[in-house]
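Pair request: fold both.
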Amino acid sequence: MGRKWNNIKDKKASRDANTSRIYAKFGREIYVAAKQGEPDPESNQALKVVLERAKTYSVPKNIIERAIEKAKGGDDENFDELRYEGFGPSGSAIIVDTLTNNVNRTASDVRAAFSKNGGNMGVNGSVSYMFDETAVIGVEGKNVDEVLELLMEADVDARDILEEEDAVIVYAEPDQFHNVQQAFKEAGVSDFTVAEITMLAQNDVTLSEDDLAQFEKLIDTLEELEDVKQVYHNVDLGE
């Protein structure tokens, strides 16, 4: 599992280069989460997860507040949450989560991204069985033993705890996301290098240099689409 955080980190780094686009996507995601439940993260777990992830991407407070106020105002803009699955070069597996107010447009855009970059769309379930939904929380300034001890004291279960580069990464069941974070916060840790519920591949695949270049172009094209929220894959991107 040690390679997983590298893939998340690389995805985050690429997105950091396009902050205005990322902020706009988070604004939409926060609005949808706030509208689906109470616009208060303490009573709306979906909103809380989005806000915790937004914090690790340094989304400005005004963007968060604007999205929540829009939801409070009873705006009637509706979005559908849709998942697409497909294959990239050499059979690599890709999951694309979207938020859209125009299903036909989104389906067409995602399909075109695959077909123009060496991939093809699959049916529902064609690749998702190769992934596990996982809570991933990373902190700095702690070692594995310290993290294990504080989670044990809080009676919180984790799938794995690994030291990866400068951070300790906790992998846990999705329903343990808030419990893990709370255990850290009670231990005086409030800043996280990563805090999200993601889809992690059970096994990574390695592509040839040419296939990897085409694969990365496909992922970039998908992530640039306005309606795409998250892209997950099973390719080892290397160091």
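--- second member of the pair ---
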Amino acid sequence: MTEKQKRQQSEVPHYVLDYAPLVYLHSQEKYFPSDISAQLSSSNTQPEANFTVVSGASSPLTLDNLNELNSFGTVYLTSKVDITTNPAWLNGVVPDSSGKTENAVPCAIIVNDHGSGNVDAFYMYFYAFNWGGVVLKQQFGDHVGDWEHNMIRFSDGIPTYIWYSQHSNGEAFAYKVVKKSGLRPITYSANGSHANYATTGDHDHTIPNFNLPAGLVEDHTDAGTLWDPMLSAYYYSYTPISSSAGTFAAYDTSTPVNWLYYTGKWGDEQYPDSDKRQKNFLRLGFYKYVSGPTGPEDKQLNRTKVCPDNGVNCILRVVLGP
């Protein structure tokens, strides 16, 4: 074991906890943070590939064996009940008065220690369902399963920048300019979509990385229900093997690890055009229901920049805005 691995596996750095974000869910939110393991429950989902139940998969699926599904190709954790009937498990868990999701673990905190005092801490948030929103009176972009995150870059234990994930991209702000409760930065989760923002209000995201107060495709945030993800979370260190792969280790030996290596999708596969639940929005390729997302291992945990490398300029904002 290398010195870096020993350092990562000892204990969660205190500053990762001291500066952990607090999340305000929208006051109209219907789909709250969800227990990660509940998404695997045989009463909620079943593993499918090409719309066919995977034969030979472990049963029951657990956070300890989920990664075994990788041998079956691209697998989707598919709802066993028609989601248009609004099964209760999609609703998640409403945080209590302290901000805790009782009997549910919807957060994974992953620490990548680059060495020389440089540390990235990822705060991964899970929801069982994403409500995409309405554009020109048409609803589109709904999907089962939803992973969002903040990432804070630390230098010698001092937070320098924070990343807010938003759909296919997001925004990065200097830590010093964002809103805080004590040391902890505030994240505002958009109604239904759970995209993360540094401010309340309306956020147009028609053009990635160029948010405006109003536009065609909007998210909406306010200081609704307080959620403290740190109160119910799994904690891990991450050791990169390459730019796109690495190994995970739990800080607590009782914490499940193998689920982090699952490369499949956390929801249904996009329904075919012929499916009666599906709508092709103005024939422009925007659908009412799209495929579920990949998990934390696919969120570029070994970044060079604060932003993920996705071909969009990484703007490090030093003024707070939408």
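Observation on the second member. The CA atoms of residues 46 and 249 lie 27 Å apart.
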